[in-house]
Every structure is written in structure tokens, then in C-alpha cells.
Amino acid sequence: MLQARIVHRQGRFTLDVKLESNGPVLGVFGASGCGKTTLLHCIAGLVKPREARIEVRTRTVCNRPGGMWVPPERRNCALVTQEPLLFPHISVRGNLAYARGAMDELESDGGWKIVEVLRLKPLLDRKPGGLSGGEKQRVALGRALLSKPDLLLLDEPTSSLDAELARDVLSLLLRVKHDLKVPMVFVTHKAPELLALADDCAVLEQGSVVAHGPPAEVLRKPRTIGVANLVGVDNLLRLRVLRHDEPGGVTILDMGGVELAAPLCDIESGSHASIGIYADEIMLCLEKPAGLSARNALACTVTQVDEVGREVLVRLRAGTNDLLARITPAAAAELKLAGDSRAVAVVKTAACHLLG
Known about the structure:
This protein has helices spanning 36-44, 92-96, 102-106, 109-117, 133-146, 163-180, 191-197, 215-218, 329-335, and strands spanning 2-10, 13-21, 25-29, 51-56, 59-64, 77-80, 151-155, 184-188, 200-205, 208-213, 234-245, 250-254, 259-263, 272-278, 282-285, 296-308, 311-318, 321-327, 342-347, 353-354. The protein is of the alpha+beta class. Helix 5 (133-146) packs parallel to helix 6.
């Protein structure tokens, strides 16, 4: 999907990276000022590095010094920035059709699938001024996809949205990934988004790649790569829907031999749902409690215990899925948690947030 060797100096900052990823979604993670956006702009062609060789889906778009440099409009990479950058005087339909070739694509079966996935049909005749932040970001994403890009570049597309809208956009990106199968480079400083969307992960620090690999593995020990303050403790799971219990008000999901009860939803049985659980909403105990209102008491194996500041992060294995719980040092000492020990994770149904 992407091969890049880039050296670019800008003032006192130097971006010096070597990346190779088969995706389909490469997440680029790191603190503000680490070079994430500069890397994205180099791939898009908005920045001309002094030294670089960049290949997008086996096509060389930059080989400097002395070689080719394909301008941005010929790279067939679509960039979605933090701000939607819509034209305020034309309708959503007009904004969608603005990209090269997008008018014909919008009228095709593939174009209408994009409109359907992003839930844009009710917005087509409206002007951007009357849209919410999440709706504007959906339009920007649709415009990018209608250009039929070889690579979709996303620069923190949820950073300006509140938590609810950010989850909505993330669920749509998951649909773009699974239904439309468009390769992406996804820049973020939010670890839960990275874990939910990315298949491959590169962590940047001061312009250099300090870790590269599957997100769950790369972020397992955040202190060793200098991003402990960025790594959220949310759990984002992609689970198969087993059945719906309408009288009980719950949907039962498969964690790989362990069942999880989530709030009732209308996702078809056999399909997959994205579920988010905050780590501080998981309670730990040594035995399954009795007389409890929480619907989930999940038998787990403790795989890792990390002290981070004044809290303890406990990684658990439930079925075939990893969970992360956040507890106090006193609770960890009382429970005597350690690798390979047994525990029960208690999770309220309402703590299982449906993302899509």
C-alpha cells in the first residue's frame, strides 16, 4: 500500500522516517508536533521533501533528489483535513461533485453506495452552513471518496468534534474500511481510534518512527515509546452479534466463547458491531459476584499489570479479546493481580457503548 523514505527539514524540525505498510489502514500516532501532518503532506505532495522516495500502491510518486516528483493533483491521493473545507455557497451535492470525475461517479452505483454508507442522501440539497460538525466531516469524506483515490489520507478527522460525533465519524470510517475497502493512512493522537480502525501502526516522536507494528502490540507498553500520556484506556471491540433479547433490552455479542450483553440494537444477527468500553467502567473481582445488577461478569485471565503514575492498568483476556481495566494501586494490591492469574471483569450493559 505505501512505502516511504523521507527526510525533510523545516526550521529546527526534521522529519526522518522510513515506512512500509500493506495496510489496509495505517495509523500514524503521536503527540502534537511530532511530524504526523508533515508526513501526510509529503505523501499527498503538498510538501516537497529534499530527500524522499515514496511509493503509493507500487506507483512511485516521489524520488528526490534528482528523480521524479508527481504533483498533488496527479497522485490520486485524497486528503481529508481536520477542517472540512466545504464551499459554503453551494449545496452538499455540489460539494460532493466538485472533485475531478466526481459528478459521473456520484450518479453511478458505486457513488450511491458511498452516499448510503456515509448517510448523505438527506443532506444533498442543503448548504454547509446548516450542517453540524459531524455532517460536514461526512460530506468532506464523501467528496474525497468520490474522487476514487488510490489512497485516502485522514488528518485527525475527529479532532474538532465532540465525543458523540467523533464516535459517529469513527463508525462510518469502519464502514468505509469494511464495505468500500479503500486503503487509508489515518493520523490521530487518540489511541482508542487507532485500536478501532488501524491494522498497522507507526508511532512518531520528534520526527522519527519509534515503533511500528500491529496497534495492540505497539501500544502495549506505551512508556517504552514515550506515549504513555496519549494512550487512552478505552476498549474498542469488533464483535459478532449472536442474538437480540428484546424483553430484556439487550443484544448479546460474541467475544470468542464469552458472551457480552450490550444495549439492544438493530444490527442483524451474524453481522458485526463495534463496541467501546471505558477502562474505568470495568470492575475487577476474584470470583463471580451474586445479586448484581450488571449483566456481564466475564471470566478472564490477567495477561499484564502496569503501574502508570497513580493508577494501575490491567490487561485481561476474555474469550479471544483483550480488555483493559483501570484500577487503583490499593485495589491491585488487595486482589494480588499478576500475569496468568484469574479474575472476573464486571461490566454494566450501559457501559458497552455502540459505535456502529
